[in-house]
Amino acid sequence: MAEMEKTYEEALLRGMGDELRLLSKQEIPDYLETPLYHGGLLNKRNMHLHSVNLCIGEVRAAEMQGALIFVHSAVVEICDGDLPVVRTEHGSITAYSVLLAGNAYHKLARNKLSGMLFPASLGNCATVKLSADVAKAINPHDVAVYDSRFVLDYYRMTADNRLMFGGGTNYSGRDSKDLSAELRPAIERTFPRLKGVDIEFEWTGMAGIVVNRIPQLGKVSPNVFYCQGYSGHGLATSHIMGEIMSKAIIGQLTEFDLFAGMKHIRIPMNEWLGNQAMALGMTYYRMMEHFR
Ligand SMILES: Cc1cc2nc3c(=O)[nH]c(=O)nc-3n(C[C@H](O)[C@H](O)[C@H](O)COP(=O)(O)OP(=O)(O)OC[C@H]3O[C@@H](n4cnc5c(N)ncnc54)[C@H](O)[C@@H]3O)c2cc1C
């Protein structure tokens, strides 16, 4: 709570007093039916959204501006040159500029990018549809929640009254074997009323984690840019970075240079060893939180 109070004080100084409110332990039941929290910080400025719909909307907006989007055509190689050539299995494109923004999913430009980004598997699940009464009881104001631990749980309700819950990130670089089984205890700890609730959907994806949590951007060659590493918080950040990269490509470099100048730790080991080191670090933080 002391940390949260500090955040709140800082927000007040930035003129966000109307949008944030500290909640005491006694006020938590007005917002969530959970025994877990010692208090909270309610933020009315932030929002939660359907990320796939955001993606679909952005695809439509880009296409209306003339963008061509090719799915199922993984880039296998980028050849440097005055005009870089991007190769896929069946074709190639010669470009003025290339932006490499493939998160932790690719092995391109290893000479510049290896050891900078580590893949963590993030998992989400969604329960079966809950009755309107149950949904209202556990989360009456439909707030999106994340807790303040280093390895955090986060959740919200969907439009059709499911609880969508994520947490317990797997930093080994591999997907979890049984995600629902991993998340269920956390769901039941958070909302005892949901003990035994069926989980209907689960999914995972990779997040590129950066040791100091600052997004990485730069150039791998004069006309090939990269931008990556939102450490699991990319929904908002990737849009800010997108704007910075679009300016950089047309030569407006002020913000690009600021980020490109940040010092990043490069772990000089292969990816497997890097992931083991990161998993060990995360276990350390988990233990520290346990004993706090
Ligand atoms: C389960 C889960 C829950 C999450 N929850 C949140 C959340 O609540 N809030 C939040 O802010 N963030 C969240 N994130 C993180 C967020 O999704 C990422 O930080 C963000 O999507 C990263 O953006 P990106 O553009 O770097 O990469 P991505 O969105 O991963 O996009 C990279 C793209 O590059 C493509 N690609 C990769 N390699 C190649 C190749 N060789 N050729 C062609 N294309 C390639 C991929 O197919 C993909 O489409 C979550 C992630 C997961 C997996």
Automatic annotation (TrEMBL):
The keyword Oxidoreductase applies. Residues 2-246 form the FAD dependent oxidoreductase domain. InterPro entries: FAD-dep_OxRdtase, FAD/NAD-bd_sf. Pfam families: DAO. Keywords: Oxidoreductase. One of its GO terms (cellular component) is cytoplasm. GO terms for molecular function: oxidoreductase activity. It comes from the Bacteria. This is Hypothetical oxidoreductase.
